Structure formats: structure tokens, C-alpha cells
Amino acid sequence: MAINVDLVYKTVLLILNQQQRGYITPDEFNKVGNQVQQGIFEKYMSDLNQQLRIPENDNEYANRVKNLEEKLDIFKKIATPTFSTNHFTTASLPNFYRLGTVIYDDTIEAQMVQRNEWYKIKKAPLIAPTASQPVFLYENNKIELFPASITSNVQVSYIKKPNQVQWGYSIGSLGQFLYDPSSSTNFELHVSEQVDLISGILLYSGVIIQDPTIIQVASQQIQQEDINEKS
Predict the structure, then answer these.
(1) pLDDT of 146 over the 90 cut
(2) Alpha-carbon torsion angle 19, 21, 24, 25, nearest 10
């Protein structure tokens, strides 16, 4: 379930206006919101890597690896990459961010190799890749599959980037901004990220309206949430 963009914007405005601290326009909110959403999203990868090195918690609801995987599930996709000349490309995949698994003929997982490993494989006919044991190089958004006879029936799993958030609006008779859900796009993050999302937007808002108090409070909130998640 996505985080409602209108709810977030109105919450940010409410907090900013509590003590007449300032205002950010919808366009400023959209730019800041996208920046914060992307930052939270990219942090998942490093957090998951860190948690995988910590002894696992078997509690059903407090398993941090499981919870992070749940947040990433929103962005996991499977699609068919485009073949061109001698390679498949991931650049055409919607909002592509990071490659996962390369699958041939629905069931065969190709093994990724580095360029130096591929040179060694080419020199050893006994370990040459086959259709039942393919390998691939992945460089510059290009997947080179070997044997080269594989030019179709290929799918990839990947992590996509969040959609661009948008608080859409029309202008009212008094010049006010009126929320327009038909032209709006919600935050694509997991609902559990709503507090961090609002705190992050407030941090940037403090810079925009030049209010150090907002920056300080938001920074402390973000730091505390980060400590709580990792301690």
C-alpha cells in the first residue's frame, strides 16, 4: 500500500505552520519529496547488507531482514529485456535500478561472471558455457549471454526505482492550490516509512524556508529513527 501524497503534504504544511514557520509550494514539495523518497529507497540496499551480517532474529514480526525484504518487494519486477546485435539491454526496462537474476527458457538461471573470469573460461573448452549452463557478462546495462546462440526466451528479475511522486493541483478562484488526485502520484514506499518520509521532507523544508529549528528537530528525529532501527 502506497503512502498518500496529499496526506504527507498536508502534514508537512501543518507542522511548518504550527508556529508560523513558513510554507513550501507544491512544486518545491514535489522536488523535495522525490529526493527524500529516493534516499530512503537507496538506503534499503546498504541496510539489508548490514543486517545480513548480524545474527538473525527468528521472531515473526521483528526479523529485520524479513522486514527490509518486504519493503523491497514493492520494487521487485520480472521483465523481458530487449535483444540487440549481441546483447540484451536493461536500459529499456521501466525504472530499472539494479539487476537480479537472469533466467533462460523459464527455468535455467544464468551465472554472472566477471570479465577476467570470462577470459579464463574461453581458454578452457571443458568448462565452456552451454544452453543448460549459461553464463553472462553485465556491463553498462548490457547483458552478454553465452553461448551466443541464446538470443530469446530470456527474462530478468530486477529492482526498479520508485515512481516520481507528484502532488497535482489546480488553481482556485482565490489563487489557492487545490489538490487534484487525477494528476497526482503517491509515494511508492512501504507505509512504515511515512514518519521517516515526513521527517526527511521537513529537513529539506527547513533549508528552503531558512529555519534552523526545523532542520535541527528533523535531523534529530531522523538520527533517532536510524539508531532505533539498527540497535
Answers:
(1) yes
(2) 70
